[in-house]
Every structure is written in structure tokens, then in C-alpha cells.
Amino acid sequence: MIKVNLLDSVTDRTHSVAAVEAQVANPRARTWLLVFAVVALTVVGMGFDWVSAGTAYATAQADLKREEDVAARMTAINKEQAELEKKIKEIQVRIDAIKRLRASQQGPVSVLSAINERIPNVADFRLTSIEQKADGLVIEGHSPNEMAVTQFGRSLEFSGGTFSNVSIETERKEVKLNTESLKDAADIDKDAPKPETVNFKLTCKYAAPGAAAPAAQSDDKKPSAPAPKESKEPKEVAKN
User: Fold this and answer.
1) Closest by alpha carbon to 197, among 138, 131, 128, 136?
2) What is the average pLDDT across 179-203?
3) Which of 4, 22, 33, 46 is the most exposed place for a label (fewest CB within 10 A)?
4) Cα–Cα distance measured from residue 115 to residue 129, given in angstroms and rounded to the nearest whole number
């Protein structure tokens, strides 16, 4: 039969509780317990702070990367904008240059057209050369009729400002006949007056019709609008 001493167990239990209470009441034990609690709270606080700092750092890094990406895109956009503005300025400079060139253009076709409209309707009136230097013209030719040369100079002078400062130099020359090509060369009268031609050199200034200043026009001669500008200048212009 098993016997249990209940008195001893109760005594031991009381002794154990008293021992615990004695340990808790011990100042050294309470100090250690307090230190342990402080250390535990410190560790917990440091862990929480570390986690919070890590999260904040990751968020800051993500924000920084986004800002850097935005800054890089803005830099690229600004660079493209600067290049476009540069190209626009270059194109505008070319457009302005073309406009100025067209405004001041004095092409050979316009010059020849303006001259051709004023050539008198006289047989054998010929222009042998037309030379243009800046705004000046030198026109050379010949005609059997001196009045035709004078009429040609007057038509240029009274051209509404297209031609100005007209001056003419003339020289009479005898026309040499090619007797070898004549069948009846022996029948030619040597005492008969020999045919003459008038060589002339006309100098003047030329202004594009758009830039020509209004001037007085003769009653019997009105200038016509010149033809479009372009093409090369021919060596000879004739009107029969």
C-alpha cells in the first residue's frame, strides 16, 4: 500500500513560495530583473527603429530613383528642344536669306525681257552683247538707223525707274561689202554712197521692277511688266 505524506508536501510547497518571495524581495534580483527588462525593451526599440529606418531608406531610394529618371528625361527633352530651336533658327536664317535674295534678285531673263520690249522695230537693229555688273548694264550693238539708237536709249531712260542714268556712245562705220559673193561685182558703182552702220555702246543702271522707284514716263512709251527671272544671258539679241 502506497503512503503519501501530505504534511511534508504542503510544507515543501510553502517553503518554495517563500523562497520565490524571498528572491523577488532581494534587491539584487530586482536589479537584474529591471536590467533584463530594460535591455529587452531597448532591443525591441532598436529593432523597431532599424526596421522603420530600413523602410524609410528604401522609400527614399525609390523616390530618389524616380526623381533621377524624371531629371534624366527632362535633360533629354531640354536637349532635344535646344536642338530643334537651333534647327528652326538655321531654317529661319535660310528663309530670310532666300527672301532677301528674291527681293533683290535681278536675273538675266528679267533684264533681257525688259530690254527686248524696248528694242525698236527696225530692220537690222541688233544687240551684240549685254554685260551686267552689279546694278550696272553695258549694252553694245549696231543699227543702220541712228534714230533707232536714239529711240532705244529714250525708251530705256523713260522706263519708270527700271533703267536710269542712260548714256550712249555712237560711232559710224562703213559697211564692207563682200564683193566675192556678188555676181555682178563689176557693175557696182564705186562713186555711189557706201552703206553705213552706227555702232553704239549704251551704259545704264538697272533696278528690279519691284524695287524701282516711280518716275515720269513718256506719253508715247509705257514700260511693260518684265518676264520671270532666270536663265543665262545670250550673246546676241536681235529684232527684225
Assistant:
1) 128
2) 67
3) 4
4) 12
What's the pTM? 0.40
Q: Is 199 exposed, middle or buried (0-12, 13-18, 19+ CB in 10 A)?
A: middle
Summarised one tens digit per residue, pLDDT across range 83-136 is 999 999 999 998 988 887 766 555 677 778 888 888 888 778 888 888 887 778
Count of H-run helices and E-run strands, the chain = 4, 5
Question: What single letter denotes the amino acid at residue 226?
Answer: P
Residues contacting 179, CB < 8 A, separation 6+: 185, 188
pLDDT for residue 228 is more than 70: no
Query: Could you tell me if 143 and 197 are in contact, meaning their C-beta atoms sit under 8 angstroms apart?
Result: yes
Pairs from 80-84 (Cβ < 8 Å, separation ≥ 24):
none
Long-range residue pairs from 207-213, CB within 8 A, at least 24 positions apart, any chain: 207/106, 207/135, 207/161, 207/162, 207/163, 207/164, 208/104, 208/105, 208/106, 208/110, 209/110, 209/114, 209/162, 210/103, 211/103, 211/104, 212/160, 212/161, 212/162, 213/161
CA 123 to chain centre: 52
Rounded Cα gap, residues 139 and 168, in angstroms: 9
DSSP tag of 61: H
